[in-house]
Amino acid sequence: MSVEKKVVKPYGNRDRSKKEEVAEMFNNISGKYDFLNHFLSLGIDKIWRKKAVELLKELKPNRILDLATGTGDFAIESLRLKPQEIVGMDISEGMLEVGRQKMKKNGYDNIISMRLGDSEALPFEDNYFDALTVGFGVRNYENLDKGLSEMLRVVRPGGKLVILEFSKPKRFPVKQYYAFHSKYIIPFFGKRISKDEKAYAYLPESVAAFPEGKDFENILIRLGYKEVNAKLVAGGIATIYSGLK
To answer: Per the omega criterion (within 30 degrees of 0), is the bond before 173 cis?
Structure first.
């Protein structure tokens, strides 16, 4: 049974899975993704990643898995932790190829590898990674429980998982600003710059359907995550969730 309120898919095709549509969507927008991501968030997404990575500092992880890595921004931010290995995994080959070029250009490809893979069926042995990050990706999972369970499986006991995800602000004036921004600004510029009308309409729809806050914390606890915590950023536009194995 799905934990989402409803199944939200980018293109709404009954004959295709959410997973297939999400992969297609990110393949379609991969060339413009980095620009749009920073433009539509006014660059604040970079600050959110810094705060998320800071939660892993005490752990001093050697092996890190970054799921829904996209073009690898979260993986790059994790270099500050000085790990020996970072694996960035995504379902979109288009996004990964942009990421590979970015790693090569900046000389990060000796530590960060970009791999095609499904977050709900990870190709890693149990307890392999010291830490795991995922930025703005879990709401795109077709089976949320399965994806979150797989994440926990591949992290070692005592390892830490950090999830950065959009949420819905509750207080004035951030609530009103976010409602306007997500309803008008994101679809308007997203459509014109990416040339994919559905992709940036899907973003606010998927955020609206996702179980956030205590609801999401309870899912993590039910699946076996320990010391679950949630920290609002930017007045609740996003939330950083963390848990231990």
So the answer is: yes
pTM: 0.91
Residue 50 · residue 75 · CB < 8 Å: no
Confidence of residue 6 (pLDDT cuts 50, 70, 90): low
Asked if 162 and 241 count as a contact pair (C-beta separation under 8 A), the reply is: yes
Place of tokens 């600004």: 185
Alpha carbons 207 and 4: distance in angstroms, whole number: 11
